[in-house]
Amino acid sequence: MKKITQQSIPTLAIVGMDCSIPNSNNLDEFDHVIYNGYQQLTTLSPAGLTGSQQLISKIIINALQNANIRPNSHIATIIVTNNQCKDENFSGVICQDFNIEYLPSTSSVISSLHLAEQLLITQQYDTIVIAAINLVHQQINHLHTNTFSYAQDAVDISENEGAAAIVLQRSDLAKKDNHHIYAIIDAISISNHSLSQIKAIQQACQNAFDLANITAQEIGYLEVFASGIPQEDEVEIQGLVQAYSTDKRSLSCAVGSVKANVGNTKNLSGIMSLIKTTLCLYHRYIPALPQWTSPKQPQIWEGSPFYVATESKPWFLEPGATRRIAAINMMDLDSNYAHIILSEDINQKERRSKYLEQISLHLFPIAADNRNSLLEQIHQLKTEIHSHTPSLSQIATQTYREYQKRQSATYTLAILARNHKELTREIERAIQGVNLAFDTGKEWQTPLGSYFTAQPQGPHGKVAFVYPGSFTSYIGIGRNLFRLFPQIFDDPLISSVYERVANIEKILYPRSINKLSNRQLEAIEQKLIDDPVAMLESEVGFAGLFTAILQNYFHIKPESSIGYSLGETSMMLAQGVWTNFKKTSDYLNSSPLFKTRLSGPKNAVRQHWGLPIIHNNQTEEFWSNYLLSCPVSLVKEVIKQEPRVYISLINTPEEVVIVGDTQACKRVIETLNCDYFPTSINHVIHCEPMQSEYDELVKINTLPIKNVPNCVFYSAADYAPIILDSDLIGHNIAKALCHELDFPKLINRAYKDNNRIFIEVGVNGNCSRWISTILKDQDHVTVSVNRRGVEDHVSILKALAKLISHRLAMNITPLYSVVNQYEQDALPHLPKINTPQFVASSQLLPSPLKARNSQHLTHSKITQYQKFHDNHLRLHQSHSLFLQSRQLSLQNISLLVKQKLELYQDLVTKS
C-alpha cells in the first residue's frame, strides 16, 4: 500500500447516509429528531440477532441509493459491530444491484474511518461504506431524562439500539462525478492516550486543526463523546477547553452530543455523531440540546468559547468566514482519541430537504364551482380518512392532487390539521362553516386556521405587500424560517449584510453555557429594543426574507407595495429596488443619528427645544411615547395646548401615538381621560423636532436603483404612488419620517386604486390589525405571516390557507411530497426550465397587472409551470426513488399502483 503522509492526505466526502433507531426509521425522521431537540430514548421490543442482517442490509442499500452510487462501482463495506454481533457473518448480507466487497468487521468507528481513508486515498476502492449496528436484548423505558452526561442533572445513560451507515468517497472524485456532497471530512486525527489523557485530546485536536489548515476559532459546532463515565467526561472537557481556548473572549462554538437525543448506542455512537453533525452542516443549523440547564463543574468551562443551544437556530457565517466548519471528538475502547474536522461543500447549491413538507401542520385544499360540489368533496375526504389510515402527509398530498384538477374553480376551502383527530374535527366544522359562509356572505375561520370565503377577493382586487415599521422585533424571531425555506440563506439581502447579520444573530438568538431564564431573556430583549440600529436591521432583514419566501417559494407577486414608517426602507430592499444594504448598514452604525440624535440623549430634540446638548453617555429622561385609545380629532384638539406634545402616528381613527415631553404627555392623557399605555420604544420619530435630521435621512436612504419591479410603490410623503428615482426615494422617506404618519390616509388611497388583498410581510402583524379596522366595512382581506408566540410554519400556513381561499394566484407545491414518476410520465409537454436561482422578484412571474378576467388562467398556468418545474428539478431523484420502491413494502407498492390508475383515468377523462 502506498504510504501517505498527513500533509498529502486528500479530503473525503460524505455522499450518502441512512440510519434507523426506535421511532425514527430513516434519515429524514432522524433529522427531525435532531433539529426539534427531541429524545428517542425508549427502546422498543428487541430486534434480536435474527434481524441484524436484514436491518444492516436495508441501511446499506438506502445509504448507497441516497448517494446515487452506480451499481458497477467498486464498493467496500466495513461493519462496526458490538460483542453481541461479533460472530455474525455480515459478508452474506445481500445488497441487490451493488457490487460490494465486505472487509473484516471492526469494533471501532475510529479504526474504520482510518482504514477507509487509506483505502480511498490509494484508490483501491471508489466508494467505502461504514455501517454500524447495535442491538439491545432488554426492554428499556425512560422518557424526558437528561442523557447528556455533561449536564448538571444528567442521569445514567442507558443503552439504545439501531443501525446507521455513511458512504464515503474522495472529495475530488466525488466532485468530478457530480455526486451530491453532504459534507467534507477535512481531517481525521487519531491520538493514543497512553501518555496523558488530557494531553492526548489536545494533541488530537491540534493535529486536526493543522491538517485542515484552520484554527479553533473557525469551528462553529463541536460534537463531544460524553461517555457518561465521570472521569472520562472530566478529562474530555478539560482537554477540549484547553485546545479551543483563545485570547478572544467570544462564545463562538456550540457544544452538543447525539447521546442527548438517542442515548448511548455503543459502537453505533460514532456513526450517529457523524450523521448528526453532517446534517447540521448540510442544513446549516446549530442543533438544540434537549433537557439542558447547566454544566457540571462550571468552573472548567470558564474562558472557553463553548455555549449550548437549547433551541435549534440558523447557522450564520461569522464575519470573514466562507464556510461552516464543525468538529467531532471521539473515543474508543482501544484507548484512542480522534478529532474529526468536517465542513460544508459551499458549491452544493441544492440541499435536499423534506422538512417543510413533513412538518406537523398540513394544508388540505378543496376546490369547487358551487356549494353542493364543495360539500360533496368534504364528505369524500371524511370517508377517505375513515376507510383506511394512511399518514396525514399522504392524505394532504392526495387532496392537493385532486385540488390541482379543479384549481380554476370558483371557490376553495382550506383545511388545516396536525393529526387525524384534528382533521376529522376540522372537516365537521367545515361542513357547517361552508354553509354559513354561503348563507351570510361572511368568512369562516377556525382557531387552527382552516378558512373559507364565498366572496373571494383574488379575481377582483390587487395584491399589496405591506411593510411594517421598525421597533417591533423580538428575541427568537424567525428561528425556523431558514430550516423551512433553506434557499433564503442565499437571498441577496442576507448576503449583502452578512457581517451585520452575524452580529444581530447573537442578540436575536442569545448564546450562553447555561439555559437563560425568562428574566435574563427579557433583559437581552430590552437591550435589543434600546438599540434602534439593530432593530431596524433585523426587521429590514426579516421583511426581505418573508418577501423572498412568498415570491420565490409560493410565487405570490404583489402589484403594490406599502411601507409604514421605516417600512418604506424595508420595501425598497425587499422588492429588490436596492440590492446592497451594506453601505447603509455600515453608515448607520457609525452615524450619530440613532445613537445620540434620535435616541439616547435625543440631542435633536434638545436642540429644537433649546435644551443643553449632552456629549457623553449620560442621559436624562424627558421624552416619552404613549399609545392612546381615543378619536384622533379629540387628541388633536387637546394637544393644541401643549407645544411639546406631538401626534407621531395615527394607526386607526381611534388609535393614536403621542410623543414629547413626559409631563406634558401625562397632562394630555389626564385631560382626555382615555385608555393608554407607554410604548416599549422611546425613540424620536415622526415629529417636528427631528426636522434637523432630514438631510441625514436623505443621505442614508439614497442608494443606487438596481431593479425596477412591475409594482406600484406608495409613500406617506404625499400619500400617493411614487416614481422610482434614487434621489426622490431618499427625499420621500426623509419627508415621511419627519412628519406625522396618517396610516388610514395611506391605506384608503391604496384601496381607492383597487388594492384589496393586503399581505403584511414583516414582524408581528400590527399593520394587518390596523388595516382591518380602517377598512372594516369594505371588501378586503388582510394576512400576516408572523405572530409572536406562533411557530413560523403555523403563521405561514394560516396565511396561505386564507389566500388560497380568496383565490389568489399562487403555488403551494412546496408543501407536499415530491411528485412521483407516474405523474412525471403523465405530463408529455415538459418545457425546458432552468435550475431555479434567487433571481430578482420581477423575473419570477409574468406581470400580474393584466385584466382581472384572466386571473383564473394565470393561476392555472403558474401552478402548471411550477409542477413542470418541480418535476424537471427532481427527475433524477424521482428515478432513484422509483428504483428503490421495488424494495419497499406491499403497502407502498399498492399505493403507487392506485395512483397510476387514477392518473390514467384522469387522462382518459380529459381526452
Automatic annotation (TrEMBL):
| Organism domain of life | Bacteria
Segments traversing the membrane: none
What's the protein name? Answer: PfaB family protein
Which molecular-function annotations from GO does this UniProt entry contain? acyltransferase activity
UniProt-listed Pfam families: Ketoacyl-synt_C
Its lineage reads:
Bacteria, Bacillati, Cyanobacteriota, Cyanophyceae, Nostocales
Domain Ketosynthase family 3 (KS3) residue range list: 9-344
